[in-house]
Amino acid sequence: MNITYKINEIVDVEQFINLLNNTTLGERRPVNDYNCIQGMLKNSNLIISAWVQDQLVGIARSVTDFNYACYLSDLAIDEKYQRFGMGKQLITLTQAQLGPRCKITLLAAPAAREYYKHIGFTQNEYCWTLDRHQTVTSLANK
Fold first, then answer.
1. Which of the two ends of the chain, N or C, has the fewest CB atoms closer than 10 A to its terminal CB?
2. Rounded distance, CA 29 to CA 14, Å?
């Protein structure tokens, strides 16, 4: 299998949606909201993609300052192409674009928790999220 990896190659919205639908991430991403997916791609500043000919088969989509923090928003590999080391290669290529002090952070899907541990990520119990419909509460109200 001949896989080509590309850095910041333009990824079409439909290609990305098709890839997500061929992974478990499709269940947790807004694949029916074209504008949201388009914004996800447009506003990512580091995208490493994997291709078999002209078919997108893997992606590592990140938002980063390249020096201190890199949030790996999506690591998606088409289910037909999993278990060939593509995820590790996408992460390795992502790291290669970052400065020496830059740390990759991600939120693991339930099915991927063991994968990240297996490839060397350290689990951090201090991650917090705030959904858009939630509001920040005042300490005075506590």
1. C
2. 14
